[in-house]
Model the fold of this input.
Amino acid sequence: MSRRNTLLLAALGLAWIGVIALPDRAHASKCEAGTVFNPITKVRWTCIFPITIGGVRVGSYDKLDKELDAQSASKPLCACRKGLEVTLGIKVSYWSPNRMIDVVTEPGCMMALGADIMPTGGKLQGSQSSIADGTQTRKMFAQMHYYISPVWAMLDMFTDLPCLENDGFDVALITEVLPTWQSATLGAIIQPEGILFGNPAAGLACMGDSAAAATGKVIDPLFWCMGSWGATYPIAGDIHFGDSVEAWAGLAARGTFMMGRLGALTISSADGCSFIPQPIWTKSRYKLQLMEPVKGGKCVNIGRPGALWSSAKHAPGKDNAQFMLFEKVICCAGISAP
Done:
């Protein structure tokens, strides 16, 4: 049994604790059947660019891409050793659509499957509420589903690339079974390091991250910040927001961060030879594309202000969202030498 399935089964044992203990939420958006994942029509394929082959860039790119592609362009040749086998080749880098994320107000609504698999009798539903502190701030709560979905392998494309993930489609995590997602207090007990970042100094640092995200950059050392989308801590389903679409993206990004804290996140190494664990995410290696309720026109870096991309993306009466998560892959593609 895979590690992610083990995590999911272990969490199932705690599911009914959250169902019984938590109060009812507001009425959730309907789980629609027409959201079944179709990689050909739903994925914004321009997001795979730029592709760098041996230091030569193909396709347009923004500031985030320039910074990452420099790792491939500076040293275009590579050599990898696996036991007695040595692979000599050139570095290839590209954005790969490997993961999908649902952010839903209807518990158990698996948008990729177009089905509601977990009737909860009114428990665990999403909600929106105003905060009575004079700031006119609102708070959203939603569930998150994280899928393993290596699109290129599913379409049988580029299968000769050694770094292409081919695990097959799988459901890695559903937050309905995690009491810590339903309560920030429970989350703080399990991940007490979050307390270190709940202070004014850490909050001021996030202002700089937000400004950088607006220009297409990401500050990786500020891992507790998600630019204009808020903070990664507490790792729970509540998020403050002014823009619903931006809040959906914030919860999708927080879910990605949580997968790293659960030990289920990896990225390709800078030399292109292996995949390395990411207990703390490298934000610049990810970007998101909105697929539902409205297909996004482009991918956005973590924390990009909603004012720059979220216009006309919230269809009336549709409060369930689906994202494709693109990961920057650096791969040593070549031939084995004796």
DSSP finds nine helices and 16 strands in the chain. The radius of gyration is 20 Å. Residues 5-27 have pLDDT under 50 and may be disordered.
